[in-house]
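FAQ: What does a ligand-bound record look like?

Like this one, built around S-adenosylmethionine:
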Amino acid sequence: MNAIALPAPQLRPLDRLGRPLHDLRLSVIEACNFRCGYCMPADRVPGDYGFDAAGRLSFDEMETLVRGFARVGVRKLRITGGEPLLRRDLPALIARLARVPGIEDLALTTNGSLLARHARALREAGLRRLTVSLDALDPTRFRALSGDRGDVADVLAGLDAAQAAGFSSIKINCVVQRGLNDDQALPLAEHFRGSGHVLRFIEYMDVGTCNDWNRERVVPSAELRERIAARWPLVPLAPHYRGEVAERYRYADGAGEIGFVASVTAPFCGDCHRARVAADGTLYTCLFAAGGTPLRGLLGEGEAALAERVAALWSRRADRYSEVRGAERARNRRRVEMFLVGG
Ligand code: SAM
Ligand code: SF4
Ligand code: SF4
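The answer part, i.e. the structure of the complex:
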């Protein structure tokens, strides 16, 4: 009698707060060519920090990992870093991940400095959505915010190259810090109005242990939205899906969309369906996790074994850091660094 080939069993774990696993952020490298003060300030993470290229998952391992996560319900995958465009042959990895059954949405977050060089190859590899971080338009300010490493003209050239390469969605992320770049909000809005790109302002978060975060530096999204709406009236838009992190608006005059991510003032843990895997294969179930679980050793056993392990880990998850931020900070607990988990 012939054996009938059954489809791979699908696991759909819920965590302890009833949240399914839907999104995965995969960091492909922890190193970066910038030293943004809110992420890896140069005095804490110097140039010779000792990043370990051998410790990074291979492309084979990453594909197995993503296949395993797709089996437990992941449909959205975002590639991040460090700076992902520093990972050699990234388009070859993108091409493999774009073909993984179940992955419906593949995106990449980059600081944009090397995008002009790689946009076409990434698009040809099957990437359709890009998020480019950009905290200032003013060249001097941009350079300072990048830890004296970046040139805003490179990022703008990268955006032009991405548009020419035919990306269907290009988002611009700006992390706003009071007194450092909040005066850049209106120029950025003006620049991207009518461009077809969606600008999103992100509240400055207390991720990691390097950035000496303090609440006074956070510009609440509501305040920023009022500033922008006073110049260009805004109309709220319905979320695309439950759990969307950005509050979406459109310009009343038809100049497109703008968004606000109020991760500090209006936490969205209740709808957090996201896991993060660092470049060395460590799983983190929260951006503010104190520690993670290494998965690399399991990858040799294949995607089914990985899926079972991830399902078991996810079903134990109870993270909701942003909803309990005050109490948690008071205890001064350890937190994973942003450049390891990639935002
Ligand atoms: N290097 C890439 C980049 O900058 O786009 C990808 C990795 S970076 C860690 C991902 C995102 O996290 C960026 O948009 C960055 O601005 C954001 N980010 C880093 N530290 C942050 C913080 N303390 N608060 C809010 N966002 C932060
Ligand atoms: Fe690098 Fe991105 Fe972190 Fe800036 S935010 S230091 S570009 S990883
Ligand atoms: Fe998700 Fe943790 Fe952020 Fe809450 S604090 S939204 S659980 S990553």
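Follow-up question: can I read anything off the structure? Yes, for example: The chain has a mean pLDDT of 94.
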